[in-house]
Amino acid sequence: MEEQLAELRAENEELRNTDGDKARELDVQNEKLHEMEEQLAELRAENEELRNTDGDKARELDVQNEKLHEMEEQLAELRAENEELRNTDGDKARELDVQNEKLHEMEEQLAELRAENEELAILMVQGT
């Protein structure tokens, strides 16, 4: 009976040691889980920020495209006016020079907007 009691005590001690090891392992696992939950929260926040940034870039690109479209229409109108002016004389020739100057300015602005649109499109692609 004493022998059985000693065996039971040894078994209990072994179980306590095993339980202690498992408790420590559980603590380590819980700590890892907590760290991963924090990382997940950070990634979610970062993703939300990126979504907002991409949304801002997309809206800015839409605005730039709209401006570009309007300027292309204005450019077409100016070209048509210039063609009309070429068919007239005197004062109209001077007006043609003014229109040509405006046309040149608009073409420069159009080129700048196209370059800006291209940069925004690249940023959007890189951001995603």
What brief labels describe this structure?
128 residues, mainly alpha, rod-shaped
Structure characterization notes:
It is built from 2 helices and no strands. The protein is rod-shaped and about 130 Å long. With 128 residues, it is mainly alpha-helical. The relative contact order is 0.08. α1 (2-86) runs antiparallel to α2. The protein has one domain (2-127). It is 95% helix and 0% strand.
Helix and strand topology:
Layout: H1 2-86, H2 91-127
What is the count of structural domains? 1
Q: Characterize the largest beta sheet: strand count, sense, and whether it forms a barrel.
A: none
Mean pLDDT: 81
Helical content, roughly? over 70%
**What is the N-to-C succession of helices and strands?**
HH
Uncertain regions spanning at least 5 consecutive residues: none
Our count of helices gives 2
Number of strands: 0
Coiled coil: 1-126
Keywords: Coiled coil
Task: Provide a quick synopsis of the model.
This protein is mainly α.
